[in-house]
Amino acid sequence: MKTFLLLVAFAVFAECASAERIKDLATVQGVRQNQLTGYGLVVGLDGTGDQTTQTPFTVQSITSMLSQLGVNLPPGTRLQLKNVAAVMVTATLPPFAKPGQLLDVTVSSLGDAKSLRGGTLLITPLKGADGAIYAIAQGNLVVGGAGASAAGSKVQINHLNAGRVPAGATVERAVPSPFASGGALRLELSSSGGFALTQRVAEAIDRHFGKGTALPLDGRVIEVRTPDGAEARVAFMAQLEELTVDSPMAAAKVIINARTGSVVMNQAVSLERVAIAHGNLSVTITNQPIVSQPAPWSVRGETVVTDRADISVKSDQGKVMLLEGGAKLGDVVKALNTLGATPQDLLAILQALKAAGALRAELEII
Asked: How far apart are CA 84 and CA 236, in angstroms?
């Protein structure tokens, strides 16, 4: 399809600056999520667990667990544990999480288990980056896939080696938060508004709470003076988050997915008047098998199959085209579509326009 800019959402981009809440633009420094990880065992599988010859750590884990439960295996015992799988358990600890709060956990196979469907996660400590235990996980897995195999045939829907345990972890330790320590707080802007947005956020806070409440430190961080006392600070932050700010227009940017050819542009992208020539080059390779028969009455003749390849190269003569410049997103899209380029050619065209100074935007390839 030659109209390649299908992912440009015109309705999303307004022509003027939009009012946004500070809650959507910034976060409190230090008040964030924390990742937790743990190693555990899933039992109760229907013969779809780890193959012990390929995953010896599963046997070591079972032996260690049984030893802690008072079961000592004789030396040299070979365990066949196809109903057990070693897994990694991950969870996200939200800000202000308190002991006793329940978290969802994700369980992923670590060995060569065929499926975790129907399994039960045994008690698993979840640790943070500092090595401390912040939660304990256990429960029945919910696997969002299904599969069946028989007589060499196999059918599978979705993924069977990962699942979730809803509310499967209990928080055991809270993470200290700077919000409760008193003093000034720092807001970190999450968008790329730069110094203009930082100044506007500080001015909006000062207008509502009084001059000197907000102090911009750089193009992303604002220090905010807050009242003493937990109750007063919560009320203060509740009002601050709902303040609206007219955010400036974002920097011109073009994001390209090189694998799929998808392109997204924002409204600040502009194109200068430029002349460009674009042509297509295609190479076609055809492979045709040829059977060679032995000569009549030959003693040791054999039939031989050989391949013959035909290669053809086709080049479409490109014409020099004049692309009219435009400061609006719609004009840029129309100009690029006149080239009739494919998504595979789009990356090279945009890079050439950028190098020539005709495309006023930052290119980001993902």
From this structure: 52
